[in-house]
Amino acid sequence: MNELELVAFEIISNVGMAKSLAIEAIRDARAFKFEDAEKKIEEAKEFLVNGHHAHAGLITKEAEGDKLEFSLIIMHAEDQLMSAETIKDLAIELIEMNKTLKSISK
């Protein structure tokens, strides 16, 4: 496995965990377990940061003149990075919405 593939898998692994945690946070919020949901969002953010760092390393290499080959696996990693970020943002909104719903239903 070459260096580019290793970085791609590092990104995919980290953002996959972030996405899973965000989905779990949504499920916790639906059950009004807001503290658990918020902990999972914070953990998801940490995994996303790790994914962004790995991705930024590739961008830095290219900016320094080290031309990277086109790779479907990198495209997939970037796609997963963007979708995980979106799901995390939606999870945060859904947590807040469920908090509002709970306060209204009292």
Automatic annotation (TrEMBL):
Active site per UniProt: H76 (tele-phosphohistidine intermediate)
Binding residues annotated for Mg(2+), in chain numbering: D79
Keyword Magnesium: yes
Requisite cofactors: Mg(2+)
GO biological process, one term: phosphoenolpyruvate-dependent sugar phosphotransferase system
Molecular function terms from GO: metal ion binding; transferase activity
Pfam family membership, one: PTS_IIA
Name of protein: PTS dihydroxyacetone transporter
Originating organism: Clostridium isatidis
